[in-house]
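#structure-requests
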Amino acid sequence: MELFSLLLQGKTSTITLKRFKIAIGFFLLLGAGGEYIEGSTQVGSWINPGIITGVVLVLLLSTWLIGSGFSKDRFAFKSLILLRYFAISFGVFVLVAVFNLLAKASPGQYVDINGLRIPIKRCVDGNRRIIPDEKSREAYCVCAFEKITNNPELKEKYKARLEDNKATEVLQELESQFGTLGIRDCLLSSGINWTAPIADAMIRNWKKELTGTEFEQTNDVNKYCDCLIGEYQKFPLREVAAEGFGESAASIRVVQACAEASRK
């Protein structure tokens, strides 16, 4: 009787462990689907190598967890049954990603700015990694759209896209003009700090400005931009983003040092 009880306890423990693996596997897939959409939206690409690598790793881990949870025998990655559970994991990931994409595409809340009715949900959700606090994100988005629509030429040019839930794309297009338009001040007032998306956005902007210039012929642009962001991140973001920092002695030293270090 005692032996039977021990065997029963062992079987119950095994079943519990398998259920736990299955639950963790699906939980990882739920998170991966949402993070893929969020991250891809932030960097402006659906095939960013870093994001894709992370997704693949999560898919493989989830496949193992779910497969070993459901399989009666020992689950091995070289077995043909792997394909079945990988398909299940990939299917769940795609469903979650599509759901999150549709949620981001829905207009959501609107604000009336300078005679335009602009949906701001995508802007608010899309800046989650840059500005953690939701109220601060809302304030930033409203401020940014006010700056854009205060300019008659830009208001006329982007009116249709702003009202058609494409405000995020407008912001990305105007990224290089944030300082001129005053949108940089909106960011600063939101209390932002250095984050990977901010650093990536600055690098993209620098590369865009330097592509096709004489500087590109004499210097490695990638190395130069990596050097700049590495040095700038030693300063508070508020200081780097402040008007006039580019002409400061500190910034000039960084630019000169990175230009020298990136020569071909």
